[in-house]
Amino acid sequence: MAGQDTFNDRLARINSGKTSTMTIPGGGLATPKQARKQVTSAIPKDSFGERLAYPMSFVWAFALGVFAYAFARYATFQIGTMGFTDMDLTSVIYDLLIAGVVVFALRMLFSLDSKELTIAQGIGIFAMYTFYHNFFFWFPDQLEILFDKDYVRQIWATAEPNSFHYRGDYFVF
């Protein structure tokens, strides 16, 4: 009954009130708290890359939101649901649904699990929703290749250059 003896030894150790010990890298015994402290202190926290990684993750999440909405607009144009009308509610809903699916996929792909990064992606989607039409004024030749010459002309006819679009109105900046 070696198993019973081992169990009784453990039970006696727990009841005696002694703290548990464990081996740590490099040899020796330590409590779990000491072992965690020693292992985490071995990781340098003063490196420039580590300090820069956290704020850059917000920029990366924002850029993924921008990309998601741009891809959604391109996809809705190619599917044919956009038509040549001004930004009506149906096309905005299509764009936001597709952008949401793309953001979800990119979030899973790049392991963006924090709420802060999800908010940054949402801000990226909103920024692209409000400023997207400006790209048709700034880069018309490139976007004629991606979309269609008639579609670019339609955006020119319905939108104001150097403005932002919100709820059907264009505000020039």
Describe this structure in words.
The protein has 173 residues and is mainly alpha-helical. Helices cover 68% and strands 7% of the residues. The chain has 8 helices and 4 strands; from the N terminus they run αββαααααααββ. It has helices at residues 2-16, 32-41, 48-79, 89-109, 115-131, 134-138, 140-146, 149-158; strands at 22-23, 29-30, 163-166, 169-172. The strands form 2 sheets. A two-stranded antiparallel ribbon has the order 1-2. A hairpin with a 2-residue loop joins β3 (163-166) and β4. α3 runs antiparallel to α4 (89-109), α3 (48-79) packs across α5 and α7 packs across α8 (149-158). The N and C termini lie far apart (83 Å).
How many distinct helices?
Answer: 8
Strand order of the largest sheet: 1-2
What proportion of the residues is helical, as a percent range?
55-70%
In terms of per-residue confidence, which ranges show pLDDT below 50 for 5 or more consecutive residues?
A: none
Largest sheet: 2 strands, antiparallel
Descriptors:
173 residues; mainly alpha; two-stranded antiparallel ribbon; two-stranded antiparallel sheet; 4 strands
SSE topology sketch:
Layout: H1 2-16, E1 22-23, E2 29-30, H2 32-41, H3 48-79, H4 89-109, H5 115-131, H6 134-138, H7 140-146, H8 149-158, E3 163-166, E4 169-172
Antiparallel strand pairs: 1-2, 3-4
Q: In short, what is this structure?
A:
With 173 residues, the protein is mainly alpha-helical.
